[in-house]
Amino acid sequence: MNYRHAYHAGNHADVFKHLTLARLIALLARKPAPFAYLDTHAGVGLYDLGGDQANRTGEYLEGIGRVWSNERAPALLDDYLGVIRAMNPDGELRHYPGSPELARVLTREQDRLHLNEKHPEDGELLKNNMRGDRRVAVHRGEGWLVPRALLPTQEKRVLLLIDPPFEQPDELERCVHALEEAHGRMRQAIVVIWYPIKDERQLKRFYQKLSKSNAPKLLRAELYVHNPDDATRLNGSGLAISNPPWGLEDELRELLPWLAQTLAQSHGGWKLDWLVEEGAVNAKPAV
Ligand code: SAM
């Protein structure tokens, strides 16, 4: 386990993932019924952008750094930026929330959080960072076992984030398996898979597997900061979102062009389409 998210915290992929997570939570919170938030690969929860790890890569400068200094961000960013502003009260960008902290702050009294992180040190940091919030349970086991271990939940609504480090060659496949396991246990779960846009051939197989999965409906949203023609670099990132709440597709259609323009490095772009449409039987593989 070599991956440490502190090197990448706040980069373009984090901005896209965390903004979408904030919108998902806002849309779920329109109804008073409680929901559970599950994070299979949670990281440490809080990041110091002034620290050695973040500064060694400087990735956040081309991610949240650009958004932070942009005065014309759409109102749909308010919740996400509100969390970051509260962590940086003097207006200087120094602290950045991981998915656990973002979810912790944006969820309500009646909601519950299950956060899992396997790395021994990062698990300890996560536990310390989440201390004092009785709605949060921190687990330090195998992330791929989370759907089997925790679903179904007592809450009828679930938001499950699957965000592995992609250190192993089989992790795209494992994501599909975890999604299927989640829907086998809770058909109505909202499952979000984050994936890197690198090798197009591998991604094609991933899309085919997703489109043949048991997800009742599945939205694909992608943000590119480079042309996706070089498999050795992170050209962008994608989110596969099953059972997206009503309104998310329209919101992403508004946000993605702005994100592509704001975060583009050599080339900006985006994609939004359905890998599985509602009611589809034997869905055709998407390309
Ligand atoms: N979700 C976090 C966020 O958005 O702030 C970032 C997570 S980071 C991409 C992936 C995390 O998975 C790392 O912290 C890594 O230590 C952890 N990890 C790696 N292998 C794991 C496994 N098999 N089970 C659980 N966690 C794992």
From TrEMBL:
The role this protein plays is:
Specifically methylates the adenine in position 2030 of 23S rRNA.
Which residues make up the binding site for S-adenosyl-L-methionine? 18, 41, 99, 117, 142-143, 163
Q: Which domain of life is it from?
A: Bacteria
What keywords are annotated for this sequence in UniProt? Methyltransferase, RNA-binding, rRNA processing, S-adenosyl-L-methionine, Transferase
Q: What does the record give as the reaction this protein catalyses?
A: adenosine(2030) in 23S rRNA + S-adenosyl-L-methionine = N(6)-methyladenosine(2030) in 23S rRNA + S-adenosyl-L-homocysteine + H(+)
The family annotation for this protein states:
Belongs to the RlmJ family.
Could you tell me the EC number(s) of this protein? 2.1.1.266
Gene that this sequence comes from: rlmJ
What does the annotation say about its assembly with partners?
Monomer.
What this protein is called in its record is Ribosomal RNA large subunit methyltransferase J
Q: What class of enzyme is it?
A: transferase
Q: Which residues form the active site?
A: 163
Lineage here is: Bacteria, Pseudomonadati, Pseudomonadota, Gammaproteobacteria, Pseudomonadales
Site for Interaction with substrate rRNA, residues: 3
